[in-house]
Amino acid sequence: MIYFDHNATTPVDDRVLEAMLPYLKSFYGNPSSLYRHGRIARSAIDGAREQIAVLVDAPASQIVFTSGGTESNTLALAILPPQGKLAISAIEHPSISESARRLKSLGATLNTLKVDANGLVTQAVIDELIKKKPDLVSIMLANNETGGVQDLAPYAKTLRANAITVHTDAVQAVGKIPVSFKHLGAHLMSLSSHKIYGPKGCGALVFEKGLAINPLFLGGGQEQGLRAGTENVAAIVGFGKAAELAKTELTQRHEHLLALRELLEAGLTTIPGLTIFARLAHRLPNTVQFGISGIDGEMLLMKLDQKNIAVSSGSACASGGSAPSPVLLAMGIESSLAKSAIRISLGAANTKSEIFEFINQLKTLVCQV
């Protein structure tokens, strides 16, 4: 199979699996226990926390483990005070946008930040937002559909200067581009293991000391009292190893993915009626989203699947519906073109020959419509 859906999930790296296995078979102690097996598990968690801290340039003491990016995003938004003022960008992941709507139904004020034709928030939008004095703003660092990367650091600086708390969903960015929690200036940042060749079911929230974070789960003192429940030691160890590899191999991966993306786009531009979305934006090196006039995206996805090629029509967490992508609509893309959208998200194991095969198959399928 040609797998082009790495923004949905990545395969577990063999080196990650090797690091996890001892904590599934031999060192199975509860990390809250004081005896030897428990201490070994606790030490493994602490080591993983350090590995992730190095990857995102943050103190290890400011990282709390969660079950994944969705929980991290939900935990971040939970700091909003009752009837508080929340602002999110129009291109957020459903775990942010749907949580925001839930908070609105409970009495919060919700503002949605418009984006430009490339799916990016602008300084003018931030300047206008400040007048509304929100308590919390959430702007994702890199979009999971278009791959567009926000210029977050100056926005966070402006918002901070106005005593506004900033959260960023960095799930798609980490491991593909350099990410520094300190440089970005956000108060909170969400991460996920399975986007960087680690296991599913594990994520993290990076937080600034002094924030009043409201735990989603109670009943234990794990994770500094911020996330009750016995830690998933093997998954956390895997996340740590994946973070270590992402750090050491970042330049190599970036160059490989960018070369493949450029080759892919060169082939796509030879197809009549095809539009690459957010092409002028600074994007992740692995992501291309396009639409073809007169083509149904989900139908094309299934035809590619029959050719043993796995692609996406958008966010995996929003799949299953026939409505066009809210991200593309927010960018001003016409509805029919948005419904034709296909997302290609490349990974470390993809090759040039797979790109050529995909382009050939795509051209054949488009001509048959």
CATH level 4 superfamily of the largest domain: Type I PLP-dependent aspartate aminotransferase-like (Major domain)
CATH topology (fold) name of the largest domain: Aspartate Aminotransferase, domain 2
Spatial shape: globular
**Mean pLDDT over the full residue set:** 95
Which structural class do the helices and strands define? alpha/beta
Strand percent estimate: 5-15%
By CATH, the architecture of the largest domain is named 3-Layer(aba) Sandwich
Helix content: 25-40%
Q: What is the end-to-end distance? A: 24 Å
Largest sheet entry: 7 strands, mixed
Q: Give the low-confidence spans.
A: none
Number of domains: 2
Number of strands: 12
Q: Going across the major beta sheet, what is the strand order? A: 2-8-7-6-5-3-4
Report the CATH C-level class of the largest domain. Alpha Beta
Note the run of SSEs as H and E: EHHEHEHEHEHEHEEHHEEHEHHEH
DSSP summary: helix tally? 13
Question: How would you sum up this structure, described in words?
Answer:
The structure is a single chain. This protein has 369 residues and is an alpha/beta fold. It folds into 2 domains: 2-10 and 250-368, Aspartate Aminotransferase, domain 1 (Alpha-Beta Complex), CATH 3.90.1150; 14-248, Aspartate Aminotransferase, domain 2, CATH 3.40.640.10. It is built from 13 helices and 12 strands. The chain has a 7-stranded mixed β-sheet with strand order 2-8-7-6-5-3-4, with helices on both faces. Helix 6 (152-161) links the parallel strand 5 (136-138) and strand 6 (165-169).
